[in-house]
Known about the structure:
By secondary structure, the chain is mainly beta. The protein has a domain at 7-76 and 154-166. The chain is built from one helix and ten strands; from the N terminus they run H-E-E-E-E-E-E-E-E-E-E. The protein has one helix at residues 7-29, and strands at residues 32-35, 40-48, 62-74, 77-87, 90-100, 103-113, 116-126, 129-139, 142-152, 155-166. The strands form four sheets. Strands 1-2-3-10 form a four-stranded antiparallel sheet. A two-stranded antiparallel ribbon has the order 4-9. It has a two-stranded antiparallel sheet with strand order 5-8. A hairpin with a 4-residue loop joins strand 1 (32-35) and strand 2 (40-48). The longest helix is centred in the first third of the chain and has 23 residues, at 7-29. The chain starts with 6 loop residues before the first helix and ends with a strand.
Amino acid sequence: MAKPLSKRPMFLGLLLLSMAALAGPLMAQRGFRGDSSRGTSESRVVRDRGHRPNTGGQHRGHEHVTYKVVYETIPGYYKTEFQNVWVPGHFDIVKERVFVPGYYEDRVRYVRHGDHHHKVVDKVFIEGRYEIKERKVWHAGEYVCKEVKVWVPPRQVARQVPVVHRH
């Protein structure tokens, strides 16, 4: 015997309502869908507020949430970093006080003997003394850790801003 026709539409209605109730969370899990070239992405999340006890049984409707991509420009700035910098080799002129030791020197003098001269060579001791002398000193190149100002150029940062549409 066949079932009465009046119970079938009610069963189908309950089945459709239960499927719709389960479809909402599944749609929320799907995530964002959108075209990245347009600068916006869209989420197809639909929330049904339904009847709530604290609202007096009023129906709130649906919310449709889309996400808009906003580009912000962060200005450039200088920052201080410590870097190893190569300092090339170079010559320095150094003045130093040097002791020159004493030494013997030949002194020539002429002595007259009658009508002609004789050459006489005497050994004379010259005492040691201090003198200031200049000399070139080579300093090899080396890496030195220095504080350097580095320019960080301006850049654009993208962030998503939710836009809620209530129906």
